[in-house]
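Morning F.,

Quick status update on the modeling queue. The single chain you submitted on Monday has been processed. Sequence for confirmation:
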Amino acid sequence: MPTIVVEVMPKAELLDPAGKAVAGALHRLGHESIRDVRIGKRFELHVDGEVDAALLETAQQLAADMLSNGVIEDVISVHVDSVAGETR
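Structure tokens below.
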């Protein structure tokens, strides 16, 4: 079963308080080489049948209209990931 993956991140110009908290915790644990953390969202849309250009376009539109908040977030990618639907 193919899976369409949608990745959404906070806009670069906005603060990411959760990311800052994680970065601070990593530094306290001795991971000084990690300078910044940004936390986003990943959606997996499991679909029946083949994924064609029209379905990817529909997923892109859903990502923009429903899965992200255009004021504070950017849709980073919409792509097919056949591995995402498998048991890990």
